[in-house]
Structure formats: structure tokens, C-alpha cells
Amino acid sequence: MSIDAPPVGDTSPWSSSDPFLSGAWEPIHDELYVEDLPVTGEIPPGLTGSYLRNGPNPAFAPRGAYHLFDGDGMVHGVTFEGGRARYRNRWVRSAGLEVERRAGHAIFGGLSEFQMPPEDVVAEVGAMKNVANTHVWRHAGRILALMEAGRPTEITPELATVGEHTFDGRLVGPMTAHPKTDPETGELIFFGYSPFPPFVRLHVADPAGHLVASVPVDLPAAVMMHDFAVSRDRVVLFDLPAVFDVQALLAGQPGVRWEPGNGARIGVLDRADLNAGVRWFDVEPFWMFHVLNAHDDGDAVVVEGCRAPRLNVAFGDESLGEPVEPLLHRWRIDLAEGRVTEETLDDRAGDFPRINDDLAGLPARYGYVAHARAWDETLVAFDGVVKHDLGKGTSVVHSYGPTARAGEAAFAPDLGRSNEDGGWLLNLVLDDADRSSALVVVDAESMEEVARVHFPRRVPLGFHGTWLAEGASTNNHRRGA
Ligand SMILES: [Fe+2]
Fold first, then answer.
1. 29-62 as b/e, with b when 16 or more CB fall inside 10 Å?
2. How far does residue 250's CA lie from ligand 1's centre (Å)?
């Protein structure tokens, strides 16, 4: 695929009443490049680089039932330079999307309703599309659009698609959308899960981006595994009972089922000897999409994440039946005593937890979690960000406005400040009142808005975003590049 390929351009606009294809999730149909966006407030001089946010934006009306996780990845980028901001959005031009563009309509099914594509398409790109729609991560100077059921897709700083990245052909299987960069060593640690044994593989890439370790991990069953935790010394895996069922998927049924009878286990590996195996700890079944952070504390590893009592996303026609709220939670896995102790840190529903990534794997004091105005069975409306002081057990809420629909707040460090919260939280905010969109910059220290960068048109809600500091080769680290 040429990186000079012309934009997807305006696909024939279409609409749907599906809650994840309308309202705040309604896809857009164009790719724009706009210089010098209007700004309310002032862009901090120290904020130099690009904010990228990924999310599902199907180019064509879906075949059959749509699942939010199915949509083609579209990356929205704002670059700050010289106190000005420019915007660009591009689809990730996956091999599957290219086949659909040639056909002029959707060909692939999704997680809620699988559809077998024609044989020649399966031979060319496989039975499922690698939509690369979940996250964006930079390591060793390479920007990767990530989706957990496929390989990473490399994109350029201008958001053109280079193609799937295989780590020189060494990566076997898919790659999680939530890799961790060790701020001290520069290593990239990630896993991939598969419906076929080995169900999990753990990988390490060195600071130059070469895959230097791949370790299979045995699980009793294939499960969906969205995130994991890495501390300075350990890797923590979560074997939770969102069980993957390929036969059901091929039969047109949902490919993921909540099966608490499968049990739940937390597994710990020693980063110094990944081949030494996993030490597993049985816990009550729960679900977690996202980890905030982890750190070592002597013989224990402490993990914080957003824990829900069960899987809180429906697949197929299944309904959750009730709101299932994730709460910020802490696990302390004591390897000497052989037990796990837990505590819930907040009684307000929230997700999309982030830290200053300079503290990834280390004792971070501050955590930033999306605040929900509403969390019911069909509507999750994030409208702000909660700054948790994990040391003191206190918190501060910043609201983006009474009709705001926000997403994840990504942390951009201010190189002029050395304190952990010396930086800014960047969040792409949609206003339900007038359907306008803006990138809102909040000072993470004061938790006050300092700038609002106005987009030329609405941007749908999405998944994860990342700050790419100018001149760095990892996301945003002060240390190590
Ligand atoms: Fe995620």
C-alpha cells in the first residue's frame, strides 16, 4: 500500500438509527486538513507536538448487526506548533477497508454478526477486518494504530497508512491496544490474545523496536483480554471470564460470552525471567477494560484499574439488563503471603484511566479517570475528568460543561515543570447542544481549562488518545527519549 494514496474522501453518506452509529457516535464521511484552528484561551507555549485520537468510524453502512468495536479506525490529529493548532483526520486504510473501497460497500461482518467474505477476499486479507480503531502508540519512532484482534498498523505523523507492522516478521498473532512503555528502560511490553492456543503471548521489544522476547502463556480457555499491567519488575495478566467462542462467531452468534463459571485469575510474571512461568491467584469473577497503573511494593505488586462486577459491553442481541459501572479499584498481590487484597477507591463510575506515562510501572501519585454524567444500560456520557491523588485518597473533578460528551484525557508533560502533574490533559470533547467539537486543554496541576481548540466540524466519540511530544520517539516521556 502506498503511503501517498489519496484520501478515502467522501464515501456516500449514510445513516443508521443504531445507538452506536447515531448521535455522538454518528460516523463522519470526510477527511480534512485545516490549518490554524480558532482557539479560545491560549495554547501553552510548552505544548509542542501532536495529539492523536483513534476511534471507530465505519466508512460503509455495515452488513448486519453493528458492534461499536467493528468500525474502521479513524485517527484525528491536532498538531501544536508556534502557539497555533492544525487538524487532520484520516481513516486507517486497512487491507480490509481497501477491499471494501474497491467494491464500494461493506464486505466484512463484525463481532455481533460475523459474515464470511468471498473466498478471494479471505485469501487476500482474512475473514475479519483489522480495523486498527482502538489506540495510537508511539515506540522507537514508529506510530502504531492498534486493535487487539490484529497486528499493529503503522501510520505516519501525517496519518497516512504505511501498513501492518510485523516487527520484522517476528510478531506471531495479534497485539493488544494497550502496550506499556517502560520509562526507565525504553522497552515496549505487550501481549496478544488469540482464540487458538496459546491463548496469550507476552512480548517485549527493545528501545530500538526489535522484538526480543515472546513467551506463550497457557490459559484454561480463550478469553477477551483488553489490558494488562506492568510494574518495574513484574507483568500482571487478568484472566477474566469474557470467554471467546469462535464456533459461535462462525455460526453468526456473538463471539464473546460472559461466563462467570469460568472463574477469574490474576497472573504475575517476573520481568527478569518471563520463561519462569506465571503465578496465578484466584479471585472473584469481575471485568476490567482498563488498568490505571501498577507498581512494586517489596514482595507485592499493586495494580489500580477500573473494575466492573461483570462484562459491561453487550455482544449480539444480548442486553446487559442493568447498568454495570466500573469503579476505580486497587489490587495488592502479595507474592510472599500468596494472597490478593482489594479495595475500591471511588464510588463514582468511571473508566479511561490515565497517568503521566513517565510514571508507568512506578508509584504514580496522580491518576486521571473519565467522569460520567450518566451511566445507564444504553448511555454512558463522560463529561469530565477526575484527578485522583492516590497518596492522599482525595480527588478533584473538572467538568467540560453541562452538555459535554468527553472521552479519555491524555497527559502531555510540560518540560518546564518537574512535578508529576506539571502538564496538560488533552480531551476531545463533543457538545451535545450544538454538536460542535473541540480539543480541550486542561492544566493538570490546577485542573482549570487553559485552551479550547475548535474543530471545523463535529468529531464523533472515540476510544483512546495519545500525546506525541515533538522531538521524542516514544509517546511523551521526559526520560529515555
Ligand atoms: Fe481500551
1. eebeeeeebebeeebbebbbbbbbbbbbbbbbbb
2. 25
For the stretch 166-199, pLDDT in tens is 999 999 999 999 999 999 999 999 999 999 999 9
Give the pLDDT band of residue 1 (cuts 50, 70, 90).
Answer: very low
- Compute, in angstroms, the gap from residue 285 CA to the centroid of ligand 1: 20
Distance 225 CA to ligand 1 centre (A): 10
Worst-scoring range by mean pLDDT, 11-15, 238-242, 246-250, 357-361?
11-15
> Which of left, alpha, beta for 163 (phi over 0: left; psi -120 to 50: alpha)?
left
Summarised one tens digit per residue, pLDDT across range 16-41 is 989 899 999 999 999 999 999 999 99
Q: Which amino acid, residue 156?
A: T
77-134 pLDDT, tens digit each: 999 998 899 999 999 999 999 999 999 999 999 888 888 999 999 999 999 999 999 9
What's the 146 CA to ligand 1 centre distance in angstroms? Answer: 10
Kindly report which listed range (122-131, 247-256, 303-312, 461-470) carries the lowest average pLDDT score.
247-256
Output the CA 276–ligand 1 centroid distance in Å: 28
DSSP class of 96 = H
Tell me, in angstroms, the distance from the centre of ligand 1 to residue 226's CA. 6
- Strand stretches in 134-185, DSSP E: 135-139, 142-146, 153-155, 161-164, 180-181
Domain residues for 301? 23-469
Q: How far is the CA of 407 from the centre of ligand 1 (A)?
A: 11
Whether residue 121 lies inside any domain: the answer is: yes
Per the prediction, the chain carries an average pLDDT of 93
135 located within any domain: yes
Cα of 378 vs centre of ligand 1, distance in Å, is 19
CA of 205 to the centre of ligand 1 (A): 21
Using the mean position of ligand 1's atoms as its centre, give its distance from the Cα of residue 288 in Å.
10
State how many domains the chain has. 1
Ligand 1 centroid to Cα of residue 108, in Å, is: 22
CA 228 – ligand 1 centroid, Å: 10
Distance 336 CA to ligand 1 centre (A): 31
- Asked whether residue 71 is domain-assigned, the answer is yes
Provide the CATH number for the domain around residue 97: 2.120.10.30
**DSSP labels, 231-299:** -SSEEEEEE-SEEE-HHHHHTTS-SEEE-GGG-EEEEEEEGGGGGG--EEEEE---EEEEEEEEEEETT
Ligand 1 mean position to 464 CA, how many Å?
A: 7
So what's the pLDDT on residue 3?
40
Q: Is the pLDDT of residue 9 over 60?
A: no
- DSSP letter at 223 equals B
